Amino acid sequence: MIRSTLLNRRNLFKSSVAMALFSRVTNLLGRNSSYQQYPKSVLRSSASDLDLKLNVLEGNYPTDLQGHALLLESMSDDTGIYVKSGKGAINRIDFSTEQATWKRKLIKTPSIQMAEAVQGSKYQFNPMAKMLYQSPKLGYMNTSNTNAVPMGDGRIALTFEGGRHWELCPEKLELLNPIGKLSEWKTAITGIPGYFNKNLLFPSIRTTAHPYYDKDMNELITINYGSKIRIKPLALGRPFTRVCLWDRKSELRSWNVIDKKNGRNVEVLNTSHSFLVTRNYIGIIDTPANVEAEIFIGLSRTRPSTPYTKIWWLKREDLKNGVENVEAISTTIKREFIDLVCDYNDDNGINVYSGSIQSSDQTEFLRDGDELFVGGKVRRDLIGLSSGPNDLSGFLKVHLSLDFENSKTTFKEEFLANDADLWGIDFPAYKGNYAFPETFKDMYWSTVGYNPDQILQRLVDIYKDQKFRNLPAKELPTTNRGAAIVHLDCENFAIAAKYVFPSNCALGSFQFIPRKGSQSQDDGYLISIVSQSDGFDSQNSSGQEMWIFDARDLSSGPLCKLGSQNLDIAYTLHSCWIEGFIEKDEHPYSVDLLEEAKDLIKKQDSNIQTLYKKIAKNFHQRSKQ
Length: 625
Hints:
The chain is mainly beta. The protein contains seven helices and 35 strands. The longest helix is centred in the first third of the chain and has 28 residues, at 2-29. The radius of gyration is 25 Å and the shape is globular.
């Protein structure tokens, strides 16, 4: 009996230790068996290029798919950098009548190449506040990982909000030139902080992820801006906002934008992710995504974003040669929006559409030690992932009239928030490839869904009393809500159809592909990049797949699923579609990287000079091919 008691005590001790260890591991990973885990595959990917055939995993491949889809990809790394700020790759899916193939190349801007060359030295690029890569001696990394914008004649611009746009050869998937010389862009860091950044080879340049190519005017329209650095009680720097036009062969032309009411420079207080263009007006969006300056000096600070979205409007006819300033008036819309689109036709006012990101912040992500809303810590393999929605979303339609003479706007808002599947409205997709149609009739949106692995307690706390909430914070679910793709009927402003994905799926890039000869805005296919945590055919799929939908019949689910065991990609962002490649005898535009930076190069040590000259020479040869 005594021996039996001792054994029971030993077993009890072992069991207690095991339970404690299990509890500790569970707490560290933030795991909860009551919900479906988020797939870990979206944060890391292969550091090599890909060229592979996609297999039909399920359904029938549509034989009238055509052209090429270009997807931007971004990845985190062992430092835990925010996945949307990480180094990236450009992916191209080629469609033929019989099959689809996938090609991938890593994006290698000059700053990325320099970072790889100086790794481990005093010039090393490090993840500043886990938000961006920076070298105190060389500057800021431009990852060009966010968007691919067609510019006519088969030309493509890659974008990143923290650097100049770069032109891409879509056939070779190689960068050609930056768009605009350094002297044609203004550094975002001004005033006293700018003094300490004036000699950087890679200066901080802020712009939009969505420059607009106007095919009627044959010009790319974009912005360049800088804001004050606000660390209470200080506000440092001289804010500015410039609208830039590029004819795809000459220098950028730019105009300073001022507030018509007070004559001061317009300041983008947050970021300017998307961009609006109509036949007669340009809309500069102050996106409610709040990057707290304190985090860059080691202070922990999280503030809620404003529950409003501000748009500055200016007249395109005011963009004249010899004019320095153009006047703008503003509209402030209730709720938070990040990707906005509009009708190109403005004869009877301006119609703007978007999906809300309410009570959320697109700059927030999972950090080491973060507590989950459902309890426990975030999973270590998800550090760097975007945080999830803290509220249900909805769709916006706003009709605006602009009165420049009296410096005011009048508008009517409609908000559609009657659907329980609208968790985190994300990417828009529509016929036109970022060229807005005269009038939107049909558009499509993806949502991120609701996964408890992404819902942070600190964000639930600071947004619990945010204005215009659709769902009280105390009613947030503790289980999954599937991601979805939604067909928005713009004429009736109603949800025409939707498809909700299984809870083991996370969505990436989302793209509309027109059928050949199609006329209507719903005549085509939708492709969605899907990452799965389990339940996939591991003999033929890596769990990362492309699902194809009939845009006119979303609710029936995917027509076809494509994949490969060897498909290894990370977090895919915006995308575009092109019909084909156009051969050119000679590229019509080039920037001499050595010439534009010659004064900055002289201020570097000999090793950096040698490295930069080698990098620049390779780009010069490429742009002449």
